[in-house]
Write a structure and sequence with these properties.
CATH topology of the largest domain: TIM Barrel
Mean pLDDT: 86
Distance between the termini: 124 Å
CATH superfamily of the largest domain: EAL domain
Largest sheet: 8 strands, mixed, barrel
Number of helices: 23
Number of domains: 3
CATH class of the largest domain: Alpha Beta
Strand content: 15-25%
Shape: elongated
Structural class: alpha/beta
Number of strands: 20
């Protein structure tokens, strides 16, 4: 029986005599869709051009053959072809979204449907199957889905993939009675390297780090990048928490090796916080939080890196810190602070040339805390800007009072943190304060630490230049303890450097210490910067720094930090040797 005759037995031709052959024309021209008809038992009756293009069979090769020929061997073994006919018969349609097989044996992903063909009496005379090759679309969707779970820079998992894998691996750990360890990782010195060699070098460094981590862990482990220089490793199939130390040490050693980036040898390190599932937490967010607490402990206590396990003590410390931050917020709101002032004297004449405003807290919960801790809390909790602006306002108001009393010819020194330099309205705020207190820019000196100065590229450096244009003096605090280079310092709008007090401990008794300090002083003078020495405690130190040519001295040898009233009396008389 010919193909045309077989097709004529099925109700495919139009009943509308005004449009004879319409369905035949559609059947022949629909090349993007495979249109197939079968008899009630599933033998192929008709096969359009689209089916020929999709499957590779010519009509005379396939018509009369069972529909099973175009299904995979797995689906045939599972009875899918007959089940498809049954669903179409009983339900009225059968969705056909699965792999199919071509003549050459290759497979493709098809999206189609099968429906019954009925005569005018409603009896099933066969089935109509229409499908389309969706392999490329499915592959593109799979690639998009995969890309959505991958960190595009490094090729490791991203946060979304981490959440999915953490869920899967923690469930497996519970089923198997194992532990799952999470290693929260943060690279050391990455910002310095990024700033020095540029963001492209930083990106290549991150790519190399990701490769190194992959090589260090097992296939059953997983690594993701959270963003920036933060990575996470999930260590699976662990019997005891101590196993995590072995991997942490391996990662630390691996990432401590010199790395070649664009012809430069760079050295980084890594800090790792470890938390154990389910011992430390059963909730995923809580597990991440505890690993982060352990990481924070490492970064606070070991600048060179290392690892630390989460412990209940860390939770207690975090709780205590939260209470301190709450107290600090209350103190900032209530302005429960006061300022003390410590004189800076001319090394030769002994006259007071400046006073440094130093913060003191009067809140009962914070009064006995070191001021360095309070400042660190203020930075962590986002209170530092408000606190710094209060210090600026109070210090300038007091300086205005001293000037109104005829106490002039000295400066007010005020410390700022790096985030304040990013405050776009800082210079306008200082201008307003100066104007309100009838002060000039030359009356104010702003101190920032050496590391802050070197890191203040971009908006921070622009702000320093803007302040200097107002006449404000810029001084680098803690000079000699940072990582600054000559080229960096030479390009900064800086007038003075303050030698860190840590260098004074064995001055002038220890010759090596004296040699180091002399070299630092020479460096500063080479850059045409004046030198302030803080922490001076003895007449021997005064003599040493005078011989070295230091211009300004500060320390308890001259005066401890004092309230404004005491400074008012001290300002009337030069400090005597």
């Amino acid at each position: 029986m010919s193909t045309q005759k077989k097709r004529a037995k099925l109700p495919l031709k139009p009943t509308d005599k005004a449009n004879p052959g319409l369905l035949d024309a559609i059947f022949a021209s629909a090349t993007e869709y495979a249109i197939i008809t079968t008899d009630p038992k599933g033998s192929i009756v008709s096969w359009n051009k689209g089916a020929e293009l999709v499957f590779g069979y010519a009509p005379d090769e396939i018509v009369g053959k069972p529909l099973a020929l175009i299904f995979t061997s797995e689906d045939n073994a599972d009875g899918v072809p007959m089940r498809e006919l049954t669903y179409a018969r009983d339900i009225g349609r059968s969705d056909d979204v699965r792999w199919h097989r071509r003549k050459d044996g290759s497979v493709f992903w098809a999206d189609g449907v099968m429906t019954p063909i009925r005569d005018f009496n409603g009896e099933i005379t066969g089935y109509l199957k229409i499908l389309r090759d969706e392999t490329e679309r499915r592959r593109a969707e799979a690639e998009r889905a995969q890309m959505a779970r991958i960190d595009l820079l490094t090729g490791v998992g991203n946060r979304s993939e981490l959440e999915e894998r953490l869920s899967e691996m923690s469930a497996a750990a519970l089923r198997n009675g194992n532990l799952l360890l999470i290693h929260m990782m943060d690279l050391n010195n990455f910002k310095q390297i990024n700033d020095r060699w540029g963001h492209q070098a930083g990106d290549r460094l991150l790519q190399q780090v990701a490769r190194s981590i992959r090589e260090a862990i097992r296939d059953s482990d997983f690594v993701a990048r959270l963003g920036g220089d933060e990575f996470v490793v999930l260590q699976a199939n662990v019997q005891t928490p101590a196993t995590g130390a072995s991997l942490a040490i391996k990662l630390i050693e691996t990432l401590s090796n010199p790395i070649q980036i664009d012809g430069h040898e760079v050295v980084i390190g890594v800090s790792i916080g470890i938390a154990v599932f389910p011992d430390d937490a059963g909730d995923h967010d809580e597990l991440m939080r505890k690993a982060d607490l352990a990481l924070y402990k490492v970064k606070n206590e070991r600048s060179h890196g290392g690892y630390h396990y989460y412990s209940k003590q860390l939770d207690a410390e975090a709780h205590n810190k939260a209470q301190l931050i709450a107290s600090l917020k209350r103190a900032v709101k209530a302005r429960a602070f006061r300022l003390h002032y410590q004189p800076q004297v001319d090394a030769r004449s002994g006259n007071i040339v400046a006073v440094e405003a130093l913060l003191r807290c009067q809140d009962a919960a914070l009064a006995n805390r070191p001021v360095e801790e309070i400042i660190a809390l203020a930075i962590d909790s986002g209170q530092m800007l408000e606190l710094s602006l209060w210090v600026l306002t109070e210090a300038c108001a007091q300086f205005g009072k001293w000037q109104a009393q005829g106490l002039t010819d000295f400066k007010m020194c005020i410390n700022l943190c790096p985030r304040e330099l990013l405050y776009a309205e800082l210079s306008e705020h200082i201008e307003r304060i100066l104007r309100e207190n009838k002060l000039d820019g030359e009356d104010i000196e702003i101190e920032i630490t050496e590391n802050q100065a070197v890191e203040s590229d971009g908006p921070g450096s622009t702000m320093l230049a803007r302040l200097r244009s107002l006449g404000v003096t810029i001084a680098i605090d803690d000079f000699g303890t940072g990582y600054s280079s000559l080229s960096k310092l030479r390009g900064l709008p800086v007038d003075k450097v303050k030698l860190d007090r840590s260098f004074l401990e064995r001055i002038p008794a220890d010759q090596d210490s004296c040699a180091v300090v002399s070299a630092i002083i020479t460096l500063a003078h080479t850059l045409r910067l004046k030198i302030i020495v803080e922490g001076v405690e003895s007449p021997e130190q005064v003599s040493f720094f005078r011989r070295e040519g230091c211009e300004i001295l500060q320390g308890n040898f001259f005066s401890k930090p004092l309230p404004a009233e005491a400074i008012s009396r001290l300002l009337k008389f030069p400090v005597q040797d």
